[in-house]
Amino acid sequence: MKNPYEWLAAAINNHTWTVAGVAAAIFVLALFGLSMVTMQTGDDTYIDKNTPRGALLDHYAETYGSDAIMLIYETDSVRSPDVLRYIDHIQEDLRNERYVAGVSGVVDLLKQANGGTLPSSKAEIDGIIGQAPPEMVERMLPSDLMTISVIALEPGLTMEAQMRVVENIQSAVSTSEPPPGLAVTVSGNPAFSKEMEEEMGGQMGMLILAAMLLMVLAVMLLFSHVRYSLLPVGIVAVGVIMTFGFMGLFGIPISMVVIGAFPVLIGIGIDYAIQFQARFDEEIRRGTIPEAIRATITQMGPSVLIAMSATALGFIAMFFAPVPMVADFGIVCTIGVISCYIAALVIVPIFAIVTRYRPKREAPVAGTKPATGEPIMERYDRFLGRLAYAVAKHPLPVILLFAVVAAGGFYLDEKVPISSDEKTFVPGDMPALLSLEKITRTMGSTSTIPVVVIADDVRSPETLAWIDRFGVYEQEHNDKIIGVTSIATLIREYNDGVLPSTEREVDNVTARIPEETLKRYLNGNMEAVLEFSTVDMEMSVARDLVGRMQGDVAWSNPPAGVTVKITGQLEMFAALMDDIADSKTFMTLLGFAFILGFMILVYRKFSAISPVIPIVFIVGWNGAIMYLLGLDYTPLTAVLGSMTIGVASEYTILIMERCEEELARGVEFLDAIQIAVQKIGTAITASGMTTVFGFAALTISSFNIISNFGIVTVITVGFSLVGAIVVMPAVLALMYRFGGRSRVVAAAGVPE
Predict the structure, then answer these.
(1) How far is CA 28 from the centre of its chain?
(2) pTM to 2 decimals?
(3) What is the C-alpha to C-alpha distance for residues 233 and 210, in angstroms, rounded to an integer?
(4) Res 375: pLDDT
(5) How many C-beta atoms surround the C-beta of residue 476 within 10 A?
(6) What residues contact 233, with CB distance under 8 A and at least 6 apart?
(7) DSSP state at residue 298
(8) Please, where are the H alpha helices in 494-538?
(9) How do residues 320-352 score in pLDDT, each as one tens digit?
(10) What is the DSSP letter of 500?
């Protein structure tokens, strides 16, 4: 019975157009799925709502949370009656928008103090503002040049609904007729998310185009010694389209981290295409097209499958990351490498038959000298062979040197800082970010830390007293907390500053509080929330603050039966720092475990660990380079360890596979290592450098999170090549000696 690769080779040789038709049908299905791809921003990309923390944040957002959209008005004098009439008019229009819970601004203060009508003169306006509470004026009217309207949205809105509200508000502003000199800017977190999504869409197209153009350049430079050298670029394009299509069919959204997956796929996919075409080009020099197809598919197919599986296992380790968009990155990369592998396996032989493929140069006759004008890549072949032979003869110094460097890298890796602030991931000049920073400078921080209190009766005097004490304590003992609002502060406000002492009094006071106001801090009788306002701070400081508040909750001894939990976006991003720290190590260790298990399962011998040893070194080198370049770990660079395992394992496995193939032919181990590196090293250098060009596209991104990832992945691929070409021969030499396969020492290398 034929194995699948023999069957595929026979099918392509004997039924070329049938196989091509099936491949085309799958491609058309992928094109259909392409139209179903969506983009995603917001909390769902950072936290899994199926976890307790994610479920609590989701519950809070649906029950209490109300994201606000801001309108920033800037002119020479916002106290001008014409400007204020315009603001009043547009606020009235926006109150009628769907999903808008309320609109407030300085005009509401003026109308309230003037019997419900807007003052008509500058003197009246100045008089009312002069008598208003200073803290209220400071927030609503930070200067004579600027004022802000706050548009509160209904709790529980989906990100899609928030986007629609932002679009409607932007449309209303654009069609309005502001007085001359008045600039109106739509801002706030929903507007920030909308602009980030639009920026992501543009970035993705630009990065894929740049990666493809750089790859064309790289292939023309490094793979020009074969005919149809641009064929791998077309194969990768097919693989990427198939990846997009399956994303749409499986409902996998594109997020800020997933964008980085596509240049990665282009880089890895080009490797499969080059490996298959290079092997076919080698085989066609000494046989017919059907023979070359059979040899390529049956010999290279399983080898690349093993390498691809190891690569996929590195990405599969990301499935277990606590950050959803990191898990999506792993899923997309896994789908992508499988798609690129299948595309290369099928397209190369079909293309060869259709074009009646002929090599550029015939194989040299044994014993003859290379012709003059020999391509540089063929001279590079022999250089790699001599280097591998020298390393294999003296493996210990090489391994010890690189192991020491790796050990230093693992030590430095622990000192690499972690960044989880979303606003540091996006372009620094993004208008929505600049407007948010302007609001923070003028109004102060809009950040809050919600604390959810659950009890049998949160309105009992005992529980209210604890809520009140806890709020006062946190405000007095944490300089980062500038205010607190809760059901207790509301009841005090409506009861002359005093907390009622009986349940009946509590009921009487709460009955006087407007329902809309009450719902912001009370959910039935069993749940309430405290909203702590904070100053603007670094995420590491926020993490410390959240940790301190959690300790204060336990220390403050809530009444029996009362459960207290901290939630909110600030807590989510603060916890994300711990998630990144834990997941980067966990994903790396899991990736190693997957690949070790896979290699032992496939080869069933101790030497199967050989390809993993250089990868351990490479992961250590990555830590050193991140520290030395001053880069941070982010949700995207957190995947570096497991991604390195996936990328580098392909190179080391292919060299080991070719070495085993030569040993099976009776070649002695030093010569086998030399031949393997000489034959495979050139292909992986070409594909590796092409991968570098693909990854280099990431470095031009204006998203800091993506450009920094591009820098480290470019270096990682370079490290992977060094690990495969230099470290792997040393590891194989030791393994073969310890395994008893070096009984006969080769006297010389392979003839040049």
Answers:
(1) 28
(2) 0.76
(3) 13
(4) 61
(5) 9
(6) 212, 215, 216, 219, 270, 273
(7) I
(8) 503-512, 515-519
(9) 888 888 888 889 989 999 999 999 999 999 999
(10) -
